[in-house]
Design brief:
Elements lengths: L19 E3 L2 E3 L2 H25 L42 H4 L12 H21 L15 H6 L6 H15 L1 H17 L6 H20 L6 H24 L1 H27 L4 H4 L5 H7 L7 H23 L17 H4 L7 H24 L1
Helix pairs in contact: 3-9, 5-7, 6-7, 6-8, 8-9, 9-12
Enzyme class: oxidoreductase
Subcellular location: Mitochondrion inner membrane
Keywords: Electron transport, Iron, Membrane, Metal-binding, Mitochondrion, Mitochondrion inner membrane, Oxidoreductase, Respiratory chain, Transit peptide, Transmembrane, Transmembrane helix, Transport
Length: 380
């Protein structure tokens, strides 16, 4: 049996420059970065040569044609040469077809007072959000087959595309806050105390960016009014400060809160998937996925919005698992067991979290795996 003390070891996880693909997660390597840098240098040289031969200077280029002025995030993705194996921005899971359908609605039973408070707060937030967004999640009536889709939507049994997008956009604009707050506080603590953070900062940043990419994706499907943006501004301002204070004094409770929040997100996206597959949101059944989603999750070019919602739900399941697991650890001494790899979705989709002993075992397995790969690379 692996002792939990291994979680407190500053050398439990040692980062080494090697190619490493674990579970559903692909990690960038030193070689990949060097290759990218070389290609960038060649591309820059080619552009400089072309500009010189044509007698044009940068000052003659119009601002409208500059990549710096393009608002479309997809335009920043290099099309030539072909996309590298790895992640586009920060590390994030890229799922296989069977993984996105392995997600289940599961629940972490509160065991402490702080857990119960966190759970009740999430339920209160969920209730208020449901009221504001008109989301009822009522079971369909017995005579639903006799009712038109429009009637079902008017009576609150199902949501249309615009209603779903209102909900998603508001949810994701708030969900991107906790990871950034946690990363900021841990970053400052690491600087202030002059000690290593043992992998927590990067995982928190990954979560924050992943939630932001959800927002960027859904923003391509709907533009909102100034009132909606003002509502988000107010909610974000209140939530940021409340979460900041909570994480400052009770980081474990804050991670538990996020875990419960992600439980609700998984439940919401599962409901949406069910409605799309039951043809209650026919507009999205075969509607093409935004290009930004295809690039980010490495979806096929013929992917649909349904595929996007599946991928988003898998992300939320990852956050659910990670945050509930982090809440089970000693916040001051334990290393982050997910600093270099995560279980695949067949684990994260069914299991609510790792307890501290399971996290210690997972850290030891990661260390042994790295040592084996390091030996293999040395011998090669």
């Amino acid at each position: 049996m692996i002792r939990p003390q291994i979680l407190s070891s500053t050398t439990a996880l040692r980062v080494v420059p090697m190619a490493c693909t674990m579970g559903s997660r692909t990690f960038a390597t030193t070689a990949a970065f060097r290759a990218a840098a070389n290609i960038q240098q060649r591309t820059t040289a080619q552009h400089a040569a072309a500009a010189s031969s044509s007698g044009q200077t940068r000052s003659e280029s119009s601002a409208a044609g500059s990549p710096l002025t393009k608002q479309d995030a997809v335009s920043t993705v290099p099309q030539q040469p072909p996309t590298f194996t790895g992640d586009w921005l920060l590390f994030h899971p890229v799922y296989k077809a069977d993984e996105v359908k392995a997600v289940e609605v599961v629940h972490q039973v509160p065991t402490k007072l702080s857990d119960r408070v966190a759970y009740r707060l999430v339920k209160l937030c969920r209730w208020g959000f449901d009221v504001v967004s008109g989301y009822k999640a009522k079971p369909l009536p017995a005579d639903a087959h006799k009712m038109t889709l429009q009637k079902l939507r008017e009576d609150g049994y199902v949501l249309g595309p615009d209603a779903w997008l209102n909900r998603f956009l508001f949810l994701e604009s708030i969900a991107g806050v906790p990871g950034m707050v946690a990363a900021t506080l841990r970053h400052l603590q690491s600087l202030r105390l002059m000690r290593r953070d043992n992998g927590w900062i990067h995982t928190c940043l990954e979560e924050a960016e992943n939630e932001r990419m959800h927002l960027m994706t859904f923003m391509t499907l709907r533009k909102h009014s100034i009132f909606f943006r003002a509502l988000i501004l107010g909610a974000q301002g209140v939530f940021y400060n409340m979460f900041f204070l909570t994480y400052l004094f009770m980081p474990a409770a804050a991670h538990r809160f996020v875990g419960y929040l992600e439980e609700e997100a998984v439940r919401t996206y599962s409901h949406c998937i069910q409605d799309i597959e039951n043809n209650l949101v026919p507009e999205w059944r075969t509607a093409p996925a935004p290009q930004i989603a295809i690039d980010y999750w490495r979806l096929s070019q013929d992917a649909s919005i349904l595929d996007v919602v599946y991928a988003v739900r898998a992300d939320e399941s990852t956050h659910r698992f990670v945050n509930h697991s982090l809440a089970n650890l000693n916040q001051k001494t334990d290393v982050n067991p997910f600093a270099i790899r995560e279980p695949d979705m067949h684990t994260k989709g069914h299991k609510i979290s790792f307890n501290r002993d399971e996290a210690a075992t997972y850290v030891e397995e990661s260390r042994q795996l790295l040592e084996r790969q390091s030996k293999t690379g040395t011998e090669a």
